Amino acid sequence: MAKPIVLPSSGKRPMGERVKEFFADFWRQRELQTMVLPGIIFMIIFCYIPIYGLTIAFKNYTVIDTLSSAPWVGFDNFKIIWSDKYFWDAVVNTLGISFLKLGIGFVIPIILAIMIYEVSLTRFKKFVQTISYMPHFLSWIVLGGMLINWFSTTGLFNQILLDLGLISKPSNILLDPSKYWWIATLSDIWKEAGWGTILYLAIMSKIDPTFYEAAKIDGAGRLRQIWNITLPNMKPIISLNLILTVSGLFGSNLDQTLVLMNTQNREKAEVINSYVYRMGMTQGDFSYATAVGLGVSIVSVILLVIANKVTTKLNDNQSVL
Q: Where in the cell is it found (predicted)?
């Protein structure tokens, strides 16, 4: 006689059994869990507990108040944002610089990674990687000082332009507001492009070489191989980087701005992060600065969700997050 088929129970297991299994798994992994514990504690102290401080965006907070004693003002701080001309100037500058970085800085690491990957000479490849990585490890204090010196009236760039006959009289380039967006964009690309190739090179190193061999047999040239093999295999990491870049459009490099901004180029150099820093730390308007930061964070989350939805559609409904 055949044995009856016993179907698994569709109900959930008792809570006690699940708790017991959780602690059993925790104990088996106690060494790993102990290593993770400091990181969890760090995040709780410095990432989650400070979230309570966002309440000052809805209060009239001063240095003589505590978080609990400051009077509530509701959305008054957010209403001020709409009529603040200097905030909207900072928004325009932030988006202008961010879109330039997105349009140019997002593509260059991909091109540079492919070029490095296609180099057959190992020593030359390592040399190029080292040279391109190096600016990433220098702080903006160092790089900013170099740029200030190079862009000065007697600096490197003026001397080159004079020798080429492109200008007749030297000038301090960094004092010209109309050039600041390009200076911020290109200097950021110079600093981070090489470092941005690491993930792309890691993905390309895992591509099966037989794909390229088969393409060669079929008569595909180097550009065709890159288009049909290399780029499709890089698609997930490109999509992930695009999502993170789009979600950070309202963010900006505060270190770069504080180093390169001066009284002459402030109208084009002031970005949201530096504006929040100036309002909060130098003018003491903590409530308003927190309200601006909170509003920008909410918009960034919305952009993150939208970018994820778009890239999911482009990746055959497969999310990379």
A: Cell membrane
Q: Name residue 82's amino acid.
A: W
Phi-psi region of 169 (alpha: psi -120 to 50; beta: other; left: phi over 0): beta
Which among 251, 265, 263 is positioned nearest to 293, based on CA atoms?
Answer: 251
* C-alpha span between 146 and 123 (Å, rounded): 29
Are 234 and 200 in contact by the 8 Å Cβ rule? The answer is yes
Measured CA to CA, the distance from residue 36 to residue 52 in angstroms comes to: 24
Q: Phi-psi bin for 60: left (phi > 0), alpha (psi -120 to 50), beta?
A: beta
Domains within the chain, CATH numbers bracketed: 77-314 (1.10.3720.10)
C-alpha 43 chain-centroid distance: 20
Degrees, nearest 5: CA angle 290-295-299: 145
Predicted model pTM: 0.81
Show the DSSP H helices in 151-260 as ranges: 156-163, 180-192, 197-204, 209-217, 222-225, 231-247, 254-260
Which pLDDT tens digit goes with each residue over 88-134? 999 999 999 999 998 898 999 999 999 998 888 888 888 988 899 99
Alpha-carbon gap, residue 300 to 131, rounded angstroms: 33
Structure tokens at 25: 């798994």
**All residues at 6 or more sequence positions from 238 whose CB lies less than 8 Å from its CB, including other chains:** 110, 200, 231
